Amino acid sequence: MNNILQVCFSAVRRMSTTGPVESTIFNKLQSALSASHVNVINESYMHNVPKGAETHFKVVVVSDKFDGLPLIKRHRLVNDILKEELQTGVHALSIVAKTPKQWEESDKIVESSPNCKGGFGK
Amino acid sequence: MSVSTVESVEKFVNFIKSPTLTVVHFAADWADQCGQVTEVLRELLKIPEIQASKTQFAICDAENLSEISLQYKVDSVPTVILFKNGEQVDRVDGADAAQITAKVKTHSLGKAAPVNAAPQKLEDRLKALINRHNVMVFMKGSRDAPRCGFSRTLIQILNGTGVSYDTFDILTDEEVRQGLKEYSDWPTYPQLYVKGELIGGLDIIKELQTNGELDATLKA
Fold first, then answer.
1. Suppose B91 and one of A15, A101, A112, B81 were both cysteines; which one would form an S-S bond, judging by CB atoms 3.0 to 4.6 Å apart?
2. Is residue B59 exposed (0-12), middle (13-18) or buried (19+ Cβ within 10 Å)?
3. Are A72 and B147 within 8 A, CB to CB?
4. Residue pairs between chains A and B whose CB atoms are closer than 8 Å
5. Domain for residue A56, yes or no?
6. A114 to chain B: which residues are within 8 Å by CB?
7. In what order do the strands lie in the sheet containing A37-42?
8. Residue B115, pLDDT score
9. Looking at the complex, does the CB of residue A75 fall below 8 Å from at least one CB of chain B?
């Protein structure tokens, strides 16, 4: 019996290539926000998803369009730009949204997100 | 009532004979995801309508009772099968909490649901939920057993502030899970509300903490 029981769990290794979703996210953020800096990090490898998956992302966006906006509005802006991606397979999106001034003053180190631990979907 | 364990084929046959819904979780000790499914079943048991429907829940060790597993084609764990009168009426293969919740609700409330209970409008329900406590967290899992790293980190930060808060496990309620995303126009969980107003997810809470604004926000 043991050999026919299995848990759907596959180990994942980090892919070095840039996936199509990753490129789309990068392009959309850069053009919609006239961003001076965009970094899209595919963190899917940290999660219980197939190799090469594009499900978990962290984005760092620096734009003067964030000037004067509270955090929640900056995040709403980013969520809105990536609405389509969030509805079609992107399960977690971690956002760092700063103005150029804040970015210059920060240490520019972005810590990685926690593992999400489950196959439950968003 | 609690989630019982069926230890023999005989007990299993007796258990599923019931005319009311019985839910059997085929599990194995070594599979972490089975613990998550058991947790989902425990949460379902707390719902008054499901208690009233006399739905019963049990765990069956898929390897010890391999005879049953083979009969019902259980080839992976966790698998949840729903029975009525000894017949399989539905099943969910895998740790799909949303599906399990939806199917158990549908089958248990099918006939037993009170006819005249007007369903509360979803929007009213969401409003009541986000205002249930001054500081309200919608998360995956409970504060003692978060089911996602983002939710766990948020709980750790909140516990560090000493502020009192309440939580809601969105994995146990698909309607709230999908509804709140639309209602608040926020696509992910966890979500933190203060006095009914969305403050944000983990990223925002972390940034507020870094900027030293978190305490003031929570105590608004």
1. B81
2. buried
3. no
4. 88
5. yes
6. 148-150, 152-153, 202
7. A37-42, A56-62, A92-98
8. 45
9. yes
Q: Which of B69, B147, B198 sits opposite A120 (nearest CB)?
A: B147
The verdict on A108 touching B (C-beta cutoff 8 Å) is no
Q: Is residue A9 part of a domain?
A: no
For residue A42, give the CATH number of its domain.
3.30.300.90
For residues B97-127, one letter each, b for 16 or more C-beta atoms within 10 angstroms of the residue's C-beta and e for the rest, the string is: bbbbbbbbbebbbeeeeeeeeeeeeeeebbe
**Number of domains, chain A:** 1
Q: How far away is chain A from the Cα of B33, in angstroms, using its nearest Cα? A: 8
At residue A11, the pLDDT reads: 34
Q: Split chain B (220 residues) into runs of 10 and give each run's mean pLDDT.
A: 89 93 93 89 90 92 89 90 93 90 87 50 92 95 91 95 95 92 93 96 94 92
Nearest to B190, CA basis, from B143, B134, B144, B128: B143
- Class of CATH domain B122-218: alpha beta
Q: How close B147 comes to chain A (CA, Å)?
A: 7
Question: What is the residue range of A36's domain?
Answer: 18-105
When pLDDT is cut at 50, 70 and 90, the band that residue A14 belongs to is very low
**Partner A contacted by B126 (CB < 8 A):** no
- Give CA–CA dist A96/B66, Å, rounded: 50
With an 8 Å Cβ cutoff, is B199 touching chain A?
yes
CATH architecture of the region B4-112? 3-Layer(aba) Sandwich (3.40)
Q: How far apart are CA A75 and CA B186, in angstroms?
A: 9
**A107 touching chain B per CB within 8 A:** no
